[in-house]
Design goal:
Strand content: under 5%
Shape: elongated
Radius of gyration: 23 Å
CATH superfamily of the largest domain: RNA polymerase sigma factor, region 2, helix turn helix motif
Number of domains: 2
CATH topology of the largest domain: Rna Polymerase Sigma Factor, Chain: A
CATH architecture of the largest domain: Orthogonal Bundle
């Protein structure tokens, strides 16, 4: 399909179905901004795959939006689980010194990992990708990525268990 034809087709799809797609996304997110993002992402995917958009297009567009919403939901759940694992407490008034100390320890442990390990964790924990999606991003098989993720999590856990003062010298010893 030529660029002009693709543009005309995507415009036609937007004019014909944009309102309904927005309503679909809004009812699921209850946020105008999130719904607009889902609609924009849906049409971006439709543009990339314009030759595969069937007639009627609306069910296909809803399917794409549904998957985008599911990905967003999984990402939010992953963020919540990660926060819970890291000891985030929403109900209590945490000691600000304690919390900043634990957050700094996590930052240090994360920074001690290789760039590949950091990317592995970010794709899963921050970007909310599945192992399969992350494997595509880094260019390996899904089982290979799962092993990589497991090993990365073990390395991070080891770093978090290390004594934070062990690698820091306390300065010169006092004379005896």
């Amino acid at each position: 399909m030529s660029g002009d034809t693709e543009g005309a087709r995507i415009t036609e799809l937007f004019v014909e179905h944009g309102g309904r797609l927005y309503g679909y996304a809004y009812r699921r997110t209850l946020s105008s901004e999130e719904a607009k993002d889902v609609v924009a992402d849906t049409y971006l995917i439709a543009l990339r795959h314009i030759d595969r958009v069937p007639e009627p297009a609306l069910p296909w567009l809803f399917t794409v939006a549904r998957r985008l919403l599911a990905n967003r939901s999984r990402a939010a759940a992953n963020r919540e689980r990660t926060a819970a694992r890291l000891g985030a407490r929403e109900d209590a008034d945490p000691d600000p010194f304690e919390e900043s100390s634990s957050h700094e320890r996590l930052r240090q442990a994360f920074r001690s990992l290789s760039e590949d390990d950091q990317e592995t964790l970010m794709l899963i924990e921050w970007d909310g990708l599945s192992n399969k999606e992350a494997a595509l991003v880094v260019g390996c098989s899904t089982p290979a990525f799962a092993v990589r993720l497991h090993r990365t999590r073990r390395r991070l856990a080891r770093e978090l268990q290390r004594d934070p003062g062990a690698s820091v010298s306390s300065g010169p010893e006092a004379p005896r």
